[in-house]
Amino acid sequence: MAKTLMIYGPSGSCKTSALATFVTGMHRATGKRARLYNVDGGIASIQHLIDAGIVTTWELGNHTYPFEALVDASRGFWPLDSRDPRSTLEPPTLTRYIAECASCQVRTYDQDKPCTSATVACPKCKAMIPVRPREAFNPKNDLSDVGVIMYEGLTGFSERLLDSMSEKLAAGDGKIGGDIAVKFTDGREKIGGLTQSSYGVAQRRAKTAVEGSRLIPVPWVIWTAHKDRGTDDMKRVPVFGPKLAGHAATDDAPRWFSLTFSATNWPSGKEVEKRIYISNYYEDFNVTTKDVEHICNSRIPPVVMDGVPPFYQFRKGKDDAELLWKIVQVIEGKQKEAAEIAMGGVKR
Known about the structure:
The protein is an alpha/beta fold. The chain is 24% helix and 30% strand.
């Protein structure tokens, strides 16, 4: 199962640059490449990796069917030609029907269609071998050299879902949650508003997509999102988190991911620091929101938290070319250390 990472923040906070540093570090360490599903627009800060052939992209911002596009993307589907919006999509895995004799190490049946009989005979030992369905990698959507799949981003997908529902309701195609809040015609344009139920539909679809992306056969999946202000349902206080459709899921969304980080622009003297927070924090420089907590989660057990900084900073020069990858390696190292402690293998 893939490990999922969320990095959220306002526009210009280096979210896409952070993705580039993850891909760079991963490629140097493993030789694997990356795929990027993009609905958020500008990806110039990762263009150098696209030009180098390390990242391949699929633009989904103008897809005719956003709900369908989100489902396909979250399952790892990929077009045969990513430049053609009407290209055939291929799943990452296929079902094959296989019968293999464990004793003779002979595969007696291997097809993409079920066998006409439930069993087939082994040509060597003549034993009857059951034909069973198995998941196999699809050669037309080869993920063997892909180490991370990235989605730019959850906010863009959510907005496209809302746009699609608004357009359909305006055209009289369906009904969601009672009467439409707004519906009128402006020249040739039919305009439709949305009800509260529409936002609930979009939020649930986003959650389902994140859950589905965990099953893609790659080591890592990374989602990005813009920052939004919502309310912690338990504490009943405002919080910042990933921006989805509406605000009801802002406090809940971070738990959908293995790791949740926040990118921010932090004033420091005459300059602005680009920071990636891995622990909850407050923007104490902002008078209007200094008491609003930003939700993050590194999943580092408390027993090994010593020495782990609350944030990492982008610095000038080549040292930060692998920043996000290095952050993740630190966290995985700490999790391994905690496991060793739990097993009694490390003395503290």
